[in-house]
Write a structure and sequence with these properties.
The chain is 61% helix and 7% strand. It is mainly α and 168 residues long. A hairpin with a 7-residue loop joins β2 and β3. The N and C termini lie far apart (40 Å). 11% of the residues are buried.
């Protein structure tokens, strides 16, 4: 018998978390809790992202990494990992995969020979160009139920929530 991979286990866990509220269960105060509502929204957003980006074989964290590299060519991989809150071992594995796919290139940093400077390759630029079109459609779906100005207000509220929670 084959053991499910870590990514498969995460997918199974996410599917379990995304159980529809139509199960007939009384959810009690859960729908009124910010954390619960954020988690349900996050599951829906990630499900749409994964479906939208399946043809590009791109996960949310990979998209974010490619975008930061484009915005900051030659940056240190440790800076990208820190900016996105990705643990070093996970980030190194992700960079290995992006390098293997020919999307990124790491070179020894001129300022610090112990670290790598990272760049997008032409293939990485092309994939990110395609991804930007897909993300625009994805964002349009996410904001389709909002009135003008509400997406910006929602982003502001999320940022305030993030700032209100002490770092641990």
């Amino acid at each position: 018998m084959t053991t499910p991979s870590r990514s498969r286990k995460k997918t199974i866990s996410a599917a379990r978390d995304a159980l529809p509220a139509s199960t007939g269960l009384d959810l009690g105060p859960l729908p009124g809790l910010l954390g619960y509502a954020l988690r349900r929204a996050q599951v829906a957003v990630f499900a749409d992202f994964m479906a939208s980006f399946a043809a590009l074989d791109l996960r949310p964290a990979q998209f974010s990494v490619l975008l930061l590299i484009r915005q900051n060519p030659g940056c240190k991989q440790s800076d990208v990992a820190e900016a996105l809150g990705i643990l070093r071992p996970n980030f190194v594995a992700m960079m290995d995969e992006l390098d293997h796919r020919g999307l990124t290139q790491r070179t020894t940093s001129k300022g610090d020979r112990r670290s790598y400077a990272i760049f997008l390759t032409q293939a990485g630029e092309a994939l990110l160009d395609a991804a930007m079109k897909v993300v625009a459609e994805h964002e349009a779906r996410l904001t389709s139920a909002m009135k003008p100005g509400e997406p910006e207000k929602f982003l502001d509220l999320l940022a305030r929530i993030e700032r209100a929670v002490p770092a641990r």
